[in-house]
Amino acid sequence: METLINAAIPWAFGFPKFNTSNKHRVKPRTVRCLRKNDEVNGLFEAPSQMDLEGHAHMKMSQSPESDPDTKHNEIWQLFREAQRNILYLNKQRLMAVEELKKAKTEKEMLLDRIQKLEENQADAGKDKLSILWDLLLRIDSMVLKGMIDTGEASDFRRLVMNSNAIVADVFFDIMQRKDVELLAELRHFSDKNKRNGFHIVHICTEMVPVVSVGSLASYVTGLSHALQRQGNLVEVILPKYASLDLDEVQGLREIDAEFYSYFNGQLQGNRIWTGVVYGIGVTFIQPVHYSTFFTRERLYGYPDDFERFSYFSRASLDYIVKSGKQPDVLHIHNWETAIVGPLFWDVFVKQGLGGTRIMLTCHDFGSQCLEQPDKLALCGLDSSRLHRSDRLQDNTKGHLANILKGGVVYSNNVVIMSSMHSKASIIHSLSHGLESTFTIHKDKLLIAPYGFDKFTWDPSRDKFLPENYTADNMKGKAVCKVALQQHLGLTEHASVILQVGCIFSEVSDVDLENLKEVVLIASRRDVQFVFTRLSKVPSKNTSLDSFLEEIKDENVRFIDKCDEALSHLIFAGSDIILCPSFHDPMLQVPLKAMRYGAAPIAITSIGKRFRHVVDHDFQSTKLSQFLNTTFAYMSPNEALDEIKSNSMQWNQKIMDAMTKDFSWDAECYDIHISAYTALKNL
């Protein structure tokens, strides 16, 4: 404290030289400590040094005969007054510091709250969709527990479909309540409005991203997204494989209710799991007694595949009935769930599903599942009624039952997924023995192209690209080409060198020979090549290794492992994408190439001209017609010639391709929604 006083009054330990003149007397200075609201706190007047000097002079002049002790006491009294003032000022300073700390803390809390609100707003759509699906799955649970009947459950589902945004807001804070309380809220809120969209239930064996082997997985997810974006309610039922990627399932939980299904002459127990995958409600069926059906290393390829998937098909139908679902369409896929068709019409249609119709999608006719007819009894079917030429009897091997044929016969509509083939070519050339069946049922056959996710694959907002671009402004594509060249260590002359990418999952020996010839011809034309293989299963391919050894060149790069970011950059940085086939249900390479301003060119060129049979059938898809008239007639060499000699014509083709919509939301969606509408009107 002594140090503090010394700092405030330098002459504290010696007598000052008093100023005997009082001509320039200074007024006392007013010291004010202000709060944040500008109010004066602790107002007092502190004397200046001149005031103190004058005060001391006046004291001495009044008492000229005062002794030194009196003077000393007066000085120390002044010191004590100064000390009190300094202590008070320090106290006020500490209070002000505390006020500043409090204000800073409040500001940080406010900024944190704003950030959280922004994050919540960004995720609002996803959160609302999750609430809706959580509510729908809770309704299923209530039915299985016997709390509500199937009619009331159907009304609740319609309510969720019609008023999904309002329902999500209303039920946001009460989803954690018990079923009894939630049911009371549902009944209070229900207005039983008439719905406009369709209720579609997929019974299938694959779905991206939880389990994927073939084209079915991306098709189910892509189409379901497109349907839900247009106000339809879509659900998926899957087997609960041991190999499921459960990290991709949001809110996975087991329904606490017993569920039984008929198989092999008796009722079999099942565990039911529910969750949300990419915004789509998914139900997983797990057999209890036949627990090894779906705990295997592979999805398909076992001697008891018919038993495995007929069990799943029957259990799916039992679950739909017991949970009170009354969908407009049961959408089944390939032979694995084709048995749903006969089961539905022979067993389940009278169990509250009179308004439901069946649609079968076929992705591949090479696998049809031929079985002994008596095995049909395992899932409750009468083989004596079904093993007939107009039903399930195989067209070639009459002693066997053809499961895929049964799905075609017993479905109201059959959608054949093909991007490049017409109905006529499929019936007569690609039916694998089902030609007579397809001919009889040709009126219910529809051809639909595959699509792709246009929200993930969009150069105008692709997060993986160094610069975005559109058909109207292609400057960003040149930036992407340079970025790709830098990444791969290629020469950077984007205005001169043409970039050719080739993305494939598997490639045949014939394709490799054609690729080698293409590279040899193009190597003389200052063309760069980027080859990459996208495959989930690593494999040793001696032919591919030999091919890569032969084409070693400073302008050729091969990437055996390509991540998502690099695959996007290859599409954006390439002028041409070589395609093993235009019918590419797995990777959708031709569709993504056109979206990114790269021409899809088939590699089967034999160095001269692409030998492709152009199908002009009027029943082919719009995608097929566009590809056939724009790119399918060109060999890689002809494409290079047109780029260099007729750039205006080439650029117009690229712009036309970029502006076409070949996503799941376009032609594929239109064909399916038309089919659902036709089924509803039956």
What does this structure look like?
Helices cover 44% and strands 15% of the residues. α4 (124-144) runs antiparallel to α5 (150-162) and α21 packs across α22 (647-659). By secondary structure, the protein is α/β, with parallel strands linked by helices. The chain starts with a helix and ends with a helix. The protein is flat and about 140 Å long. Residues 1-65 and 605-616 have low confidence and may be disordered. The chain folds into four domains: 2-97, no CATH class; 123-196, no CATH class; 197-448, Rossmann fold; 475-662, 3-Layer(aba) Sandwich (Rossmann fold). It contains 23 helices and 19 strands. The strands form four sheets. Strands 3, 4, 5, 6, 7, 8, 9, 10, 13 and 14 form a ten-stranded mixed sheet that branches. The protein has a five-stranded parallel sheet with strand order 17-16-15-18-19, sandwiched between helices.
